[in-house]
């Protein structure tokens, strides 16, 4: 029993080490397969997106990046110099203390036969005072460093955020939002920690130089010989660091997988119960969990191998010092007190180099981070004007497309010869299959992208002759996905108009029939909206986005009708709200519903970036063209008449 | 009573050999640490007394050998400590996961996934760091102090008392300091999460922000969050910089070193040159290690709270627990009968269903319609036995639903849920969800039946294509058909469809209708829907309003007689004229007349 228990413990702890040993070949095959899949997916993505530029080297010299960093340090020059001062002071005190200690020992060594307190007392007192004082300067140094670090990294955060927002949509198309968010949060967090380490390592290096200089004055040979081994030590540390980075990457990935699987399983618990999946879920989760255990242990190995090795090297260095020191003492080149000083101070040059070696990659990475931050904001051709205070245009709302051509990537036309016209207050419905270019039309009216050919006229004037900011302020875009931030309902509504008063807000809510649901919330307008508005229903989110547009009061509205799942009641409310929203405004609607289409003044049927036909519902039906077919095939399913045919068909 | 700490200890002693090894040898290792210091002191002393290199060579080689041994020992301890810590947290995660899997839906309804995830991820990490290396460091520092007691005591008892006093002050100060620091670090972490969230939201919603020209709005919100974060970071940084217990130790170290030199100088208490060196190096080791105690203590305190938080979930009682029945449901006669069923989700909540009486015969199709919150989904959930009726009985094949075994019930009742949940894995795996060992053919057959086969084949990797992050995004209609295939694969005799979508684009609508129509013929189907085309195929339509049945009958009949029914559709469809109030026998609710 005891025996089997022991084996069991061993198996639980290290069993993974012996599993799957045979299946190395399988592993290879699996990897190959994964690679293929990845490639395929990437190819698929590549078709939609512009081709990625190959991995490049850094575009900026270290000097540029340091200057960039300096531009952030500059406002805190005072703190910066304070830090430098305290750092030097700490180093000086740190070296002074052992010197007094050495002086004390030297007195003892001199074998003074008439010991007098007054002789040794100053040294001892000085030693204690210096050691205590050093603690204060060190704490000051740490505190200043933390502050400076925090100010700088958060200033960068703010600046980079606002710079990124200034970029054109094209920038966001090419950059993944996840990566962008990573830059501005995790990268800057990393920069903060690097800053901490940097101060540490830099302090150590200064101390190293001073220590070596002092020790050199006591014994050049002992210093020289013991220093000779240090590069070797650093090399060991650097090579270990590489290994640990690789292992850490695997660990992070697996840890992420477990978490994802856990949360997925929690969110889908009712499905699992319905399909009686509990056991299977546990089995699968256990596999993942064990896999993570394995990589955790590997990562632990990489981390905890450092300590013993460094310890051994340190003792090795100690032996060298003792060896050479004895020889030197015997040949009367140094005093015993000086010899002791070496033993006290050799850590001062052992640890700095070890820590430099350990953190070397981190400092390298810092340059990478700085460059990414710099690049997120410096591309002139991608920057839009930021005159956010400008007044909206006083426009009539006539809009006309004249032979508009557009392409995201050269030679891949998305829109071809798009021509249509709407007078003030008219509603245009864009109809067509997914990928026809409907959303693109919305984007180019907002001037998210520049057109390639043709003209877009608003009130008879070229779209590109208007001030960009003023233009956007006069056009409302209601997209399918509603942007909601964690905050109050009011805050989220003020996105449309920051100066809107409560009575204006309530009026807007009234008009879209959203007053009721907000009044029912515990704190009314001050009720919290949770992350991405998860505590609101799809219908409620829609209402908020409509109220927002009303608050902005644009002359022209572009509406991307939502296809999200709502019940018939909400549906009816949304339809009413849309009617109110579009009342007296020119509108371009990307329509999915028959009711919306029927209410339009002009229906534009688009396919593959071209207009197939346009006209009113009646006109188009009579033309017997693509709209007619589409109507029969799809839209009729939504009308009651169609029911009878199904009935008889059964 | 069990708490987090005891639970962790229990898990640790599932691995008694490793745990004991780590504890005992980490104590021994600290003692070994003293050897090199001692040897160094001896060497210096010997040299002072005129030793030459040949005299001390042996000692130096011993020191080198010791260094190798010590490094090995140190490694086995720290690594094994890490292994055990990971084993424990892995076991913790597993136990947490398993305990949650078997909880009832009533339990899960009251739980926030984010809350649970915070415990599964953040808290386990904290416990992990607390176990390795925080506990070990704390242990080692304590042993080191004991060594200091012995060494100082050997010089003079006053020094021993002095060390003990300092030790007590130091420990108390450290605990006080750590307790104060913990809230800061926790706060910092939470705010960092918020920062990431707002950044991500603003960047994903950049089109909307730009279209409203609300960059100033976004910036202001963002800056507010950044400044809040920065202020906490500043406060934490400052607090962290002033780890004052170390000042006490520094002062202590100074006094011990100084007094030992003084004793040597005065020739008191037989203090030798070597003693001074030994004490000095040991004390500087102690100061260095005590600095580690700052964050170790912090993690120990946080780890304790975290373990409590995780254990609290495992220990929680399940309000909706029921024992499993024994009757095997064979699905041959899938009739379902509700006998005066009333239900509420929770004693504090209003009735979700009131006195429901319905009967669904084998292979019949029942459509349930009603406004949101009328109880449609609740009926479907009761049939799946995800909840038990509060009052009344649900009979399946004439026997109460409670009497069946979970396994047999679930294998004959399949669901297409309203909020379709697809897993971040391949298409095939998603379809196989309810029957993990299904063959390739079965999967394809189910997909064909659900009209999903064609679009799946059009994906770059077909059935092996990933869904969700890193794979394709499916449209609403595609997802629904996949979910239908998933339900069909288990070959159920009862099919429940919670069909919430109303406004899919027309093309999708057609495809889904085709998929559903096929299935209705061969299964007992309960479907909640607003698609008229589906409703018209149902044998019976049930209209629910506020948890009560307000209409029952065929579509043709209801559309002409029931104003609840008409109200649902009149906004969207052209309905035939109302045919007055015919007192039809099928209408159960008296509220119908109005």
How would you describe what is shown here?
The complex is a heterodimer of chains A (650) and B (594). Helices cover 65% and strands 10% of the residues of chain A. Chain A has 650 residues and is α/β, with parallel strands linked by helices. Chain A folds into four domains: 46 residues; 183 residues, ABC transporter type 1, transmembrane domain (ABC transporter transmembrane region fold); 114 residues; 227 residues, Rossmann fold, CATH 3.40.50. Chain B folds into two domains: 312 residues, ABC transporter transmembrane region fold, CATH 1.20.1560.10; 188 residues, Rossmann fold, CATH 3.40.50. In chain B, 62% of the residues lie in helices and 9% in strands. Chain B has 20 helices and ten strands. In chain B, a hairpin with a 2-residue loop joins strand 9 and strand 10. At the A-B interface, helix 1, helix 2, helix 4, helix 5 and helix 7 of A face helix 2, helix 3, helix 5, helix 6 and helix 7 of B.
Question: What's the arrangement of secondary structure elements?
Answer:
The complex is a heterodimer of chains A (about 650) and B (about 600).
Chain A: H1 2-14, H2 24-48, H3 62-73, H4 77-109, H5 117-166, H6 169-174, H7 177-218, H8 220-228, H9 230-267, H10 269-274, H11 278-304, H12 306-330, H13 336-378, E1 399-407, E2 413-422, E3 427-431, H14 438-445, E4 453-458, E5 461-462, H15 468-474, E6 475-478, E7 487-488, H16 489-493, H17 502-511, H18 515-520, E8 528-529, H19 538-552, E9 556-560, H20 568-582, E10 586-590, H21 594-598, E11 602-607, E12 610-615, H22 617-623, H23 626-633, H24 641-649
Parallel strand pairs in A: 3-10, 3-11, 6-9, 9-10
Antiparallel strand pairs in A: 1-2, 1-4, 4-5, 7-8, 11-12
Helix pairs in contact in A: 3-13, 4-5, 4-7, 4-13, 5-7, 5-13, 7-8, 7-13, 8-12, 9-11, 9-13, 12-13, 17-19, 19-20
Chain B: H1 4-12, H2 16-48, H3 53-101, H4 105-109, H5 113-155, H6 157-204, H7 206-211, H8 215-241, H9 245-266, H10 273-315, E1 336-343, E2 353-360, E3 365-370, H11 376-383, E4 391-396, E5 399-400, H12 406-412, E6 413-416, H13 427-431, H14 440-449, H15 453-458, H16 476-489, E7 494-498, H17 506-520, E8 524-528, H18 532-535, E9 540-545, E10 548-553, H19 555-561, H20 563-569
